[in-house]
Specification:
Number of helices: 3
Strand content: under 5%
Distance between the termini: 19 Å
Shape: globular
Helix content: 25-40%
Radius of gyration: 12 Å
Order of helices and strands: HHH
Length: 86
Amino acid sequence: MSAIRYNQVIMSEVGGSMAAETLCPLCGMENQCGRAAGCPPGSCWCDQSVFPAALLEQIPLEARNKACICKHCLERFVAAQASEPN
């Protein structure tokens, strides 16, 4: 699977309602998702972010498509990928 805009997949699969899903499925910290907080589409940091497929695969099966990954986990993953030798 290629990199995708993860939040768009989540919002479509849960019908746009994520009010109770404010924790990152990877680290358990608040994901700071504006869409989960009720902000309009396009207004959250995650709307402009691309989540690599390898990062999405780290989400436990039972937690997939339930909440957004936080910015810290995304940035940490991208930095780790950038520092790995090709």
